[in-house]
Amino acid sequence: MPEICALTQATPFSDAERDAVYKAIHTRRDVRDQFLPDAIPDEVLNKLLNAAHHAPSVGFMQPWNFIILRAQEDRDRIWQAFSRANEEAAEMFSGDRQATYRSLKLEGIRKAPVNICVTCDRTRGGEVVLGRTHNRDMDLYSTVCAIQNLWLAARAEGIGMGWVSIFHDADLRTLLNIPKRIAIVGYLCLGYVDELYEQPELEVKGWARRTPLEDLIFEGKWQGEP
């Protein structure tokens, strides 16, 4: 018989603790270019990864792995794959939109001292996983929760993070020797920063604005177009 652990009281956080959680959420930014060259100490990086590893996961399957890249030559190879895909992405926009896209500085891969590729092993936990019986993508959602944990922990440590999504999946698989059964969920750039945008960078630079929360809340049922 497995040992039964005692429950602990779910006491509310103190005002200071609660404020710190909300501060991390509201001041988290997607950092693209402002990274400092300072190395992230191993003990700090392990704290961030441990925060990620404590994310919720369906069926407690913990489907994530973290591929750490620190060598400049490795990051340069990843950047070359990104650069090819980024040029393709730029061509998908036109006019002022394309000019704005090209003006965005996307140098995190080469500037950030640590890159992390986060993957999801969709076979972990076996064929039938508690909680994933009717939604096969719950393992992917769990891995995204791990990334969010890592992001908020990084913010608390004064470390910026950027999520790079402009890749051909096959390029990353080849460069990082990732098996076909493994899903690539996120490619992250991490490094210390000395300043962050007060608002999301894409909002500051006129790409988009935050949608008012009241426009996104429905009561009881869907209230938009069917």
From TrEMBL:
GO terms for molecular function: 5,6-dimethylbenzimidazole synthase activity; nucleotide binding; oxidoreductase activity, acting on paired donors, with incorporation or reduction of molecular oxygen. Residues 25-192 form the Nitroreductase domain. GO terms for biological process: cobalamin biosynthetic process. InterPro entries: BluB, Nitroreductase, Nitroreductase-like, Nitroreductase/BluB. It catalyses: FMNH2 + O2 = dialurate + 5,6-dimethylbenzimidazole + D-erythrose 4-phosphate + H(+). The keyword Transferase does not apply. It is an enzyme of class 1 (oxidoreductase). Keywords: Cobalamin biosynthesis, Flavoprotein, FMN, NAD, NADP, Nucleotide-binding, Oxidoreductase. Its EC number is 1.13.11.79. Coiled coil: none annotated. Belongs to the BluB family. NCBIfam families: BluB (TIGR02476). Homooctamer. PANTHER family: IODOTYROSINE DEIODINASE 1 (PTHR23026:SF90), NADPH NITROREDUCTASE (PTHR23026). This is 5,6-dimethylbenzimidazole synthase. It comes from Pseudooceanicola spongiae.
